[in-house]
Amino acid sequence: MSQATSAELHIDPTQFPGVDVYTVAGNPISHSRSPAIHKRFAEQSNQKMHYGRLQPALDQFKTAAQAFFAAGGKGMNVTVPFKLDAQALADVLTPRAQLAGAVNTLRIEDGKIFGDNTDGAGLVRDLLAQGIQIKGSRILLLGAGGASRGVLGPLLEQSPKELMIANRSNAKVDELVHLFGGLAGSLDVALQAVSLSDLEDVGKTASPFDLIINATAAGLSDASPISDAAASNIFTPKSFAYDMVYGKITAFMQQALHRGARVSDGLGMLVEQAADAFLIWRGATLADAIDPRAVLAELRTS
User: Would the CA dihedral through 11, 46, 272, 218 be positive or negative?
Assistant: First the structure.
């Protein structure tokens, strides 16, 4: 959707009388595949609904979201850069949204806005669907921003042997280890923090890793968060490299491929987190009526 009109970026629920209206909010948002995903879920489960796009100005998320719900909107997915704004907007947060420190799914009920975070669950389901063994594995998570925080809890709950977080800033990664240390300890998972430069030193990482997840946005600008020296240290043909960026072979994925590792982009995570949001809005009883993997296969070929 390269030439989106103003109307296509600012959905008005009053224009769809008698239909439940949902949207994805972000800036930019014209590229989002969420409308196509939710359209297919609605078709699979015979739901009468409309799903659009909303692109608030960078400092206008709260105003735009409140206007959407006041006009009758039922639910909203939230993407970059508004997940923290969505958390602040919500009247009630689910436990996983509280732990994630960010919200990607909003719904309204009895005048209250509820915030949830389905990113981590979506990532885990995509990994498992691809045959990746998380339990007992060594995981390296690149980045310590909102994307990492959103998936840490669900990853830890899968009981890997070790989860190492690498980031450029020590302060951010140390904060994550502090926040999630209790959960990791209760599950007997070794949770550690290192700098990105430490990945070049095998003595500091005891590399290689079974699963390496890029939760940074480096792929959006055709860059990788790690050096080639680090890549040689952490990847083997037995590794699985996962980049949350979707729609292209990123520099991070290329580094992994050059060392014989399997790779995946984040499109499956997008579809799986959307499935969770759809069920939050339309009801868990529809779980057997939707087929996220079929939707993913359609997107891969479209």
Answer: negative
Radius of gyration over every alpha carbon of the chain, rounded to an integer in angstroms: 19
The arrangement of strands across the sheet holding 138-142 comes to 190-195, 162-167, 138-142, 211-214, 240-243, 262-264
What is the pLDDT, as a whole number, of residue 8?
Answer: 75
Name 174's bridge partners. none
- Pair 169, 143: CB distance under 8 Å: no
If phi over 0 gives left and psi between -120 and 50 gives alpha, with beta otherwise, what is residue 125? Answer: alpha
Tell me the DSSP string of 128-186: HHTT---TT-EEEEE--SHHHHHHHHHHHHT--SEEEEEES-HHHHHHHHHHHHHHHHH
Please state, as a whole number, how many other Cβ atoms lie within 10 Å of the Cβ of residue 168. 14
pLDDT in the model for residue 5: 62
* Residues assigned a catalytic role: 83
DSSP assignment, residue 17? T
The reported pLDDT for the residue numbered 2 is 42
